[in-house]
Batch of 3 targets.
Target 1
Amino acid sequence: MSGRVRSVLLLALPLEAGYLALSRLHDWQRSVVEYIAVYLATSIFYIVSCWWITEKNEKPESRRQLAAILLAGLAFRLTLLPLYPSLTEDPHRYRWEGKLQAAGGNPYVARPEDPQWAGLRDSTWPRVNRKDLPTAYGPLLEWSHRLTYAVVSRLEPNEFRQVWLFKIPYLVFDLATMGALLGLLAQLGRPRSWVLIYAWSPLVVAEFWASAHNDPVLVFFLVAAIWAAGTERWAWAMGALWMATLAKFWPALLFPLFLWSGGRARLSGRLGWVLAWTPLAALLSLPYWQGSWQGPAQLRGMLAGFLGGWRNNPSLYNVIYAVAGRDYEQGKPLVAGLLVAAVLAIAVRRPALPQGVLATTVVLLFLSANCFPWYLTWMVPLLATYPLPAFLLWTALAPLAYHILVGYQATGRWQDDPFYLYLEYVPVYGMLLARLIQWGVKKAFDR
């Protein structure tokens, strides 16, 4: 066994111990304090591993070292795979939306609490979230909910086991993301061993393989779009970006960046590929637009609420909220204006696509009124191409946001504690400020 393989195993062992400890907690919502503590401890070893792979592992990786990294990442995932999603209610909502579509309903119009759909209520009903709102997921994810329910309802009669089975399609996308990321790293001239940053991320492993969030679909298509664009395969790049948009909507913000990334040269060709994929996007969306014109209006209301109708784990949005006189309606134009200005500024500067997508994603998360921990998984594969310590630290601190469940279980109030927001965000913004000062000083001396 080579020294580098031995080092990988020595780094992986304490991480696996952390994942084993998490698996023994079983119901993370009832053990949320213990979950946060174990996660933070596990993340210490993850941060050390990221530092070692990017700063101390100077020689090109061997195939055995890369295989050890990937096998360790798979072992971490399999450790948490048996867990039932307990820290989130989202998978129960996925199943309800699949069941709704099987009954002929439109998730962009129907709400779980609607009396018309009371017949869909079963033993999982108490855990279906946001019963007063239609879906906020894109058509591509609605298709996944529809098809997954069609399969699992035939394979498994137990309703809670059906919820667990909703993990499987998204886990396939997570594994595919690792493959696409290896290709992207090689294309960029980065060490492929940096895939460790994604493969070993406690945030990715916990939120995807235990909590069963559907974000791996979005993450895969983002990585695929960047990878295809890097080899001038703009047909596939724009197709992948469309699919990412049809999953979670917000990647529509990335179209200016992708269109302008090559400058004016062949801009018309890139725009042509965007338009060429539009009919397929419309076809995938068509079933959800038929039957009622109320659906698009409700969807716009839901997305507007996401950027200023309630707050959960926000950072810069708290400043915007205060400036707007604690009025969500007045805050929405401020958020929208700042977001559009930032997106256009990033696109005009024409950074390398991985950095541009990372910058846009971070701006969105900083400005958002809601920043759930699993939203940070959107930037983890990008950090594998451009490791920024502040954002790696953010992924380690993000589960502090689950502190809100302690008070919610005790009092029924969904209320952030500012102390935990400071614990999460002050180190992140502090490290970013320090890096900015360092960059400014270096630039001044270079003159």
Target 2
Amino acid sequence: MPAEPLPAAPPGAEHLHFVTGRLAERALRRAVAPLAEEQGFAYSIDVLPITVAALMTPAWIAKRIMAPAQADRVVVPGYCHGDLGAIESAAGVPVTRGPRDLRRLGELFGGKHQAEPAGYGRHDIQIIAEVNHCPRLSLDEITTRAERLKADGADVVDIGCDPGGVWGGVADAVRAVKDLGVRASVDSLNPQEIAPAVAAGAELVLSVNSTNRDAAPDWGCEVIAIPDDPKSLAGLDATVDQLAKAGVPLRIDPILEPIGFGFAESLCRYRDVSRRYPDAEMMMGIGNLTEMTEVDSAGVNALLLAFCQEVGVRSVLTTQVIPWAQSAVRECDLARRLVYHAVAEATPPKHLGGELVMLRDRADTEPTPADLSELAASIRDHNYRLAVAGGELHLLGPQMHLHSKDPFLICQGLLDRAGEPGGRQLDASHAFYLGYELAKAATARTLGKQYEQDEPLDWGFLTEAEESHFLKKKRRTMPPAIEPADNESGASD
């Protein structure tokens, strides 16, 4: 079909030429129109003779594209894999690959799903990540955990010692961590452990109070000053004063208490200490909260780092031992960038990539009943489309629309209709595929997440890419020189 020119934009505006298939035409028009008005670009839409745009290849598009002379850029579907050079040669203008999901087309124009503004990513909070109970671990176990912590974003790896004894292997552990190119600290109150750790290269001691402050000048490194009694801050002033007079560099940690043990008051103490010592560096042991609170840790870490950013606490100590906090370091690395941007730019920390939105989703963009009706009416092939809408799973095929909250009922309905119009027998491969996709759809329905067939569910920074095996198979078997009239059917499964 010839490309249809649409309403003009302001003079000099960029003209975008969108390429799609018949099935996605209406959805594309609905998505492009408001974007063109908002962003001020002109556009045209080229509906090529294929049902499912995902089956297009660059070579196939190049033979059929009809870009108008005024076009400045061509936008092809996100599923169009491969070298786009053939299309650029045919159209005579640059070609951009759009998103796979039309509802996210705004990403091409800096819309609300745009990941990061210019300069985003700066931060000034240091992450100290502890390897807990090191005396109980082998050297290989310590270095393996240290490597992961570094990869997740830790600036310093803390060698955690156990109270009640002297660990003879602390120096070896520090040297092994430093050999990885990782900065090291030691977590102990015992000078007999601290001294060899510092001699081996530990640059920070956690922690110092009245029990060991006399030895601190001999270590020649920075220390964390803590109170003898967190609730009253008893001993803190004396420790800070003694260390300062001895020229020992220090950070202050008033100690974060778990919920139920004075959490709110301990936050207030950080604010009060920052005012009492405005020039002192501070640290917060946020693992005291995340490890002791049975809740997903990402939101907790983000709020704690926001507090630190505003109060002036420039280092945090965390760990990732408990199952619900096993990605705590990566969460802190993302959160420190988010809160730095929010405070520096005086803007709410949202629409900045959404990597910490994991359990839920960033937007509610499920198809409407009208969308499902249009999709059902447009299906001409014998492949099934899946969707989640209105609290139910939907399976659509020619003359078929099954919907239920229960994926087993969807499958049973499909089997019951195998001999009816629009129905067909499923081979094992297709049955496995539908079962897998329905399981994803059921998870999305349960959590209120967006479901897109053949796409992974969005778990924020934990999302893992998925291959679209059925689409790849269909591409491999599509005739190389198929004529438009022969390409009415396509596959979406």
Target 3
Amino acid sequence: MAPVNLEQFYDADPRRRHSEELEFGSDWRYRGARTQVSWVEETGEVYVMRDPLGHLETELFGEESVDPVGVDELTVEVIGTVAGPDAIRAVMSGWEKAMPSGDDGIAWVRDRIANAATELNDPPASPSRDLPS
């Protein structure tokens, strides 16, 4: 699915708007912008929501702030599907360590989703094999 704005994403499938979602962090970096990764229970979709103006700014004493944007400026891209909450938790095991991994941490997410069948054998209780020690 090509990126669309947030409202278009929810309007395209009514199940999305009323579904529970699991969030896997909102401070990913993707193409220089702050990005959130979420999973929609009703559809099994894993999506990234890119905040084009939501750059994290480090202030004088190390505090971070985010520039706010309107809902119509948030772009959503579905990057794959994973059936069931246990499966998505297993596939995304280690996301907390991967999220701060640089400007394209989303590449890690894409790889995990693309290889979901293999990642299901990488239990959440174990360190993810594809993360640096």
